[in-house]
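LAB NOTEBOOK - FOLDING QUEUE
OPERATOR: T.R.
BATCH SIZE: 2
PURPOSE: Compare the predicted structure-token outputs for two unrelated chains run back to back under identical settings.
PRIORITY: normal
REVIEWER: second-year student, initials M.K.

ITEM 1
FIELD SEQUENCE / FIELD STRUCTURE:
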Amino acid sequence: MGLQAPPTQRHDVQILTTHFQFNGQLETVGPAENYINTPTRDSLALYDLYAAPLTPGIPLKGASRSDAVVLRSQIVFLYFTSAETRSTISTFPRRELLVVYTPVAVCRGYFHMPAEANLRDLLGAIPTSLIPITEAHVFPYFQLPAPFPAQAEMILAGRSQILFYHEA
């Protein structure tokens, strides 16, 4: 019997990037956490999406698209709307309450890290591009074009978009 590819799945997501807000379906192959954090993956495919610019007052308005590709390095926050999908994202046992600053919002929540990790080396201690934050509170710097969770059981933050952080 030949090898079979892992199943393709679509997950409802909300994504904030540095310039856009997306609501749509993220397509993954195999477990969502492994797929989105594959080191060689530069982008993620979204389907049945609505994209709206974050810059207020510009002529470009939001648009619905059947599909689009988002660069992973531009993702500030990714929220899986399904509790079932969020429950599959693994976390380290140690957690620290931190406040992180990004280009579009401040986020307060618990960051999970290895027991031996130094808080100052948090970003180096967590090996994924999208970092899980639990009991998260998101405070955008401006009104977003569409609803985005102000409080979330879990949200993923883009490592490359964390400007600085400190203990809460």
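ITEM 2
FIELD SEQUENCE / FIELD STRUCTURE:
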Amino acid sequence: MNILETILTSGPGRLATKQLGLSDPPKLRRGDILPAGRVVLAATGASTLGASTLELAGITPIDPLYDEPSTRTTGEDGKVKVTSYDTRPGVIVVDATDIVALDDLEKIRSVLRPAMRDLEKSGRVILLGPAPDDTDGHEARAVAEALDGLMRTVGKELRAGSTANLIRVRAGATEEDLLSTMNFLISGRSAFVSGQTWEVGPARRSSDADGPQPFTDRIVVVTGAARGIGEAIARTFARDGATVVAVDLPAAGEALAKVAVEIGGSALQLDITEAGAASSISNHIRSVHGDDARLWAIVHNAGITRDKQLANLDEKRWKQVIDINLKAEMTINEDLLHGDLPGGFAGGGRIIGIASTSGIAGQKGQTNYAASKAGVIGYTHSLAATLAESDQGDFTANAVAPGFIETEMTAAIPYVSREIFRRTNSLGQGGRPVDVAETIAYLARPSSGGVNGQVVRVCGQNLIGK
């Protein structure tokens, strides 16, 4: 800790920063903890998808309050008072999956106005809307897109650690397809996910099982697992019942072995860029877990930065980043997806890549890194489409895009710059490695088969990018 950081984190320093508008960020509700308040359910039309999904989750919602002229009162001071809840709700779910008309947006406004004032700390606003490509007509398309802008603004206006997200429900998707996403968003597992839009469609293999250990008897490979975000991913999967194969470089062997032992998994020292990396993974799975063992999920977390402004960036630094962050993932996936590879995938599985907000918005001094992470996004979309069209089984490919996450690497950033990075999102703080891990585990669940080709940002609604 340097002198400036010591001063600013002292008693007088903290008082001064509060006076400058830099108050302590809210404590976020994390883990499987559910909100204390009730779940409110509103619908813009006749859709019952939201209601049936909550019923499947074991949640009995309450009716919403509406802001209308007849529900407002005028106080003694002459100010108009909006109707309010007797007790603070924890979650507001708005089912707008059948919305087609501009006038229907007013109902969402009337539901959210009182909710914005009354929502509990670390509350949730969850909008369900149609996928724009499934709409018919100009007005319906405009309304579907309007939900995105509405949700992102709500996320920026919410306070006290509350979040807002929009789930676009594809035609044919059911409550079973939506369940894992609804559970994720309501729970504390989605603490650092806000201002995001992604799609849920019909799963190839329906599953309404979304319990606390969904990966029991399933093998999950995590690369870059010796420390930081990778370690958190490995620990989260193990907590949720997975048998974890933790992969990292030989140089990180001691730390890797420690993680593997503590989570009851196995360690594989491997340079993922070497020829035959996929065979090394599959052979390890066979040797440790038997010839019939197959892989359920792989998380391509391993990655590096070699930052230089482009004017000073040589081909060596460029190639290192592209090879590790993107090429290795593509090569390993291609080999593991061969159904006849013992120890590889068979009949279904989950592939998770790690993108970055730098790949979405760019970052000075990181042309190589930004290119590699944007490439992960493009590759994820392409692979997901291929898997959806194949007859290989229940496969999905998705990615997460972390923003500023508190790690050893970010701790080395100078204090003032670090504080700026922390606070440039709607939640006013950096995320934790577990926030990334929880989102990845959600995408990898057997019950998340309806989520394919999506990139979910874990950034607290960073102000850069979309």
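REVIEWER COMMENT (ITEM 2): The CA atoms of residues 37 and 429 lie 24 Å apart.
FOLLOW-UP: none requested
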